[in-house]
């Protein structure tokens, strides 16, 4: 087992990893930018190293600084958390070259799933259902128009190196094709220094279902069932739940089996997710694979009694998994609490927290790095906490979450708490019958 792990991340996920390491008797090293000097992950780690100024590229994305910090402190492994360098193949490769274990996927695995077109081809070859579309990148708009007629409108063009909805356009009619094609190509080049595009049939009224998988170094893969991530705004998740209200036991079994086949095809190592679109007819299609731990991993932990961070570390240390698939024993819901003003277009609201009261009680878990007097910097993602409610039924979970949100007090900044409270009372949400278009009809007034 590792003696010392450096956490190449910040905020609640860094704190989450530190806590698991302590339970395992592993010492920890926090890295931080000057903007995060007073963050809890810096205070709770056994050692801390400043790696640069606030901009991410000069700190949390600064590979030489992070490797130097690992060498200086004698860390024998690095956990990247999520975001930042967690799916950076070059970082995984450099860690290997320096004899430091990267707690996550190998460079080859990250590369094979990081390029969306390659990932789709890999899944198709392994028997996982994929959305009809181009076999790879499309070179010209003329070629794209011909394919669009074959698979029928609406279609969606996507950046092969994309994420967060950038480089993505939905095209419903041929007469708007060229403008949207050019827009996507320009945005993709600016965001990812890669203007490659591919195209798929656009699945209308879908749900976003992801399957949590874990693989070891010996080729064994298992799944821990699904999470429903359909409540989104501009392709950014707002809350997640498990089990999904849309899945029958038979469909859950089929999706889990498909996810395991896909991960096994690349001999996946570590924790990751296979993400699917589920249409209104019960057909599902591979969308992408995330080769890292997910923000929403706690709800899976709560319903399966399975510590995913601990399992990541054990797998990286060469300990084999059992290969057993896990299914939900309970119900769980996670609400992401962001420093944003939902009544003002979810505009970021960084600043000093003047008063803080965290909710508690049976079935409530809070993952957060903030405290009263803490100043939220404007440089990073606006998520400041996750509220996880667990119960015997979905109805119980929704009531428990509402109670917890009403107890949650954060003063000095705007947060998404009022939005989530209103969501818990929404009849469409309570029914469980919703799609990824849910937020298009949600009233954000009176928050």
Structural summary, described in words:
This protein has helices at residues 11-23, 40-44, 63-73, 89-97, 107-114, 116-125, 141-151, 177-192, 249-265, 297-304, 308-316, 394-407, 417-425, 427-431; strands spanning 4-7, 27-33, 47-52, 77-79, 101-102, 155-159, 169-171, 197-201, 207-215, 221-233, 236-242, 270-278, 284-290, 331-338, 340-341, 347-348, 351-352, 355-357, 364-368, 375-376, 383-391, 409-411. The protein is α+β, with helices and mostly antiparallel strands. The protein has 3 domains: 4-103, Rossmann fold; 132-201, 2-Layer Sandwich (Dna Ligase, domain 1), CATH 3.30.1490.20; 207-441, 2-Layer Sandwich (D-amino Acid Aminotransferase, Chain A, domain 1). Strand 10 and strand 11 (236-242) form a beta hairpin. Helix 4 (89-97) runs antiparallel to helix 5 and helix 12 (394-407) runs antiparallel to helix 13 (417-425). The termini are far apart. The mean pLDDT is 95.
Q: Which descriptors would you attach to this protein?
A:
D-amino Acid Aminotransferase, Chain A, domain 1; alpha+beta; 8-stranded antiparallel sheet; 3 domains; 26% strand; Dna Ligase, domain 1; 5-stranded parallel sheet; single chain; 447 residues; Rossmann fold; 14 helices
Share of helical residues: 25-40%
- Uncertain regions spanning at least 5 consecutive residues: none
Separate helix tally: 14
Count of separate structural domains: 3
Main sheet: which strands, in order across?
Answer: 13-12-9-10-11-14-21-19
Write down the CATH topology of the largest domain: D-amino Acid Aminotransferase, Chain A, domain 1
Shape by Cα distribution: globular
Tell me which oligomeric state these chains represent: single chain
Output the radius of gyration: 21 Å
What structural class do the secondary elements suggest?
Answer: alpha+beta
Number of strands: 22
Beta-strand percentage range: 25-35%
Instruction: Provide the CATH top-level class of the largest domain.
Output: Alpha Beta
Terminal CA distance: 49 Å
CATH architecture name of the largest domain: 2-Layer Sandwich
For the report, how would you describe the main beta sheet? 8 strands, antiparallel
Average the pLDDT over all residues and give the rounded result.
95
CATH superfamily of the largest domain: ATP-grasp fold, B domain
């Amino acid at each position: 087992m590792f003696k010392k792990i450096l956490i190449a991340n910040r905020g609640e996920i860094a704190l989450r990893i530190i806590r698991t390491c302590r339970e395992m008797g592993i010492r920890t090293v926090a890295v931080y930018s000057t903007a995060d000097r007073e963050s809890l992950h810096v205070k709770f780690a056994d050692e801390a190293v400043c790696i640069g100024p606030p901009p991410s590229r000069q700190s949390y994305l600064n590979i030489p600084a992070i490797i130097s910090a690992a060498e200086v402190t004698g860390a024998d492994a690095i956990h990247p958390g999520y975001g930042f360098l967690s799916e950076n193949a070059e970082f995984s490769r450099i860690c290997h070259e320096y004899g430091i274990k990267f707690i996550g996927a190998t460079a080859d695995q990250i590369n094979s799933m990081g390029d969306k077109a390659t990932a789709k081809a890999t899944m198709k070859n392994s028997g996982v259902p994929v959305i009809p579309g181009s076999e790879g990148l499309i070179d010209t708009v003329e070629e794209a128009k011909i394919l669009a007629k074959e698979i029928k409108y609406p279609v969606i063009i996507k950046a092969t190196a994309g994420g967060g909805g950038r480089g993505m356009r939905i095209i419903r009619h041929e007469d708007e094709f060229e403008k949207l094609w050019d827009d996507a190509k320009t945005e993709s080049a600016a965001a990812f220094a890669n203007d490659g595009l591919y195209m798929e049939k656009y699945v209308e009224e879908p749900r976003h279902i992801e399957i949590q998988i874990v693989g070891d170094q010996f080729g064994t893969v298992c799944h821990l069932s699904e999470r429903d991530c359909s409540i989104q705004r501009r392709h950014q998740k707002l809350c997640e739940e498990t089990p999904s209200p849309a899945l029958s036991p038979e469909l859950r079994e089929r999706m889990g089996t498909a996810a395991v086949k896909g991960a096994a095809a690349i001999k996946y190592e570590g924790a990751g997710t296979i993400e699917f679109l589920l249409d209104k007819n019960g057909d599902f299609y591979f969308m992408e694979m995330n080769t890292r731990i997910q923000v929403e991993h706690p709800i899976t932990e709560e319903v399966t009694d399975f510590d995913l961070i601990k399992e990541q570390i054990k797998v990286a240390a060469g300990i084999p998994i059992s290969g057993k698939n896990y299914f939900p024993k309970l119900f769980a819901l996670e609400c992401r609490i962001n420093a944003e003003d939902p009544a003002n277009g979810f505009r970021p609201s960084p600043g000093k927290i003047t008063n803080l009261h965290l909710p508690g009680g049976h079935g409530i878990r809070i993952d957060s790095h903030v405290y009263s007097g803490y100043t939220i910097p404007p440089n990073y993602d606006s998520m400041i906490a996750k509220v996880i409610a667990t119960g015997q039924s979905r109805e119980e979970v929704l009531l428990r979450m509402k109670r917890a949100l009403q107890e949650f007090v954060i003063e000095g900044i705007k947060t998404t708490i009022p939005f989530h409270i209103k969501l818990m009372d929404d009849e469409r949400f309570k029914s469980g019958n919703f799609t990824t278009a849910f937020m298009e009809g949600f009233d954000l007034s009176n928050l």
